[in-house]
Amino acid sequence: MIQAIVFDFDGLILDTETAEFGAWQEIYCECGVELSLDLWIQCVGTDSGFDPYEDLGTRMGKGMDREAISVKSRANYQRLIAKELLRPGVTDYLSAAKQLGLSIGLASSSKREWVTGYLSQFGILDYFDCIKVKEDVAKVKPDPELYIQVVQGLNLQPHNVIAFEDSPNGARAAVAAGLHCVIVPNFVTRTFPFDAYDLRLDSMKEKSLEEVLQRFNQ
Description:
The protein is of the alpha/beta class. The chain is built from 9 helices and 6 strands, in the order E-H-H-H-H-H-E-H-E-H-E-H-E-E-H. It has helices at residues 16-30, 37-40, 52-60, 66-81, 90-99, 112-121, 145-153, 168-176, 209-217, and strands at residues 4-7, 103-107, 130-132, 161-165, 180-183, 199-200. Strands 3-2-1-4-5-6 form a 6-stranded parallel beta sheet. Helix 1 packs across helix 4.
């Protein structure tokens, strides 16, 4: 019997990933080179892998003003994220979970200030009973430690919990921790190859939380 749901944050609750990718695409374009999704996939859902600063410097073959690029990327990101709302169905799922008496957790490879800042901005912070972030673990996703800590914090067993993820790295972490996993890819991750999940949704509007629970409570 499912007793809790655990959300990822970036790309799942708020599509920060598409904004981040778009911000760097603009910078690459200005430098006359291309940033492909095949490269970008390496850093989605984790804090390691592809480094756009290093890659851009190597491909340009000359000295790069890292600070200027950093300022530009942040400005691009803020302009793009300002247009974003919570992904469709997120608040419906959170409200339904509370009404059904389910616990709600969050497991994110990002820093706490980043995650809780956005959750507060959109008025949904109080929905979460347990939040684990980068500062809480030795290794972030695809390592399962974040999910293990959330499940322990909720005082539940992994098989009684559904994780909702948007990236391959996140899904691998959830499955490795023993949770059921529903993937809800965003604009950036929808073409990525997922190798670990139980159910795929294009949007949380596609199925209600009650319908998803029926799938796992059979």
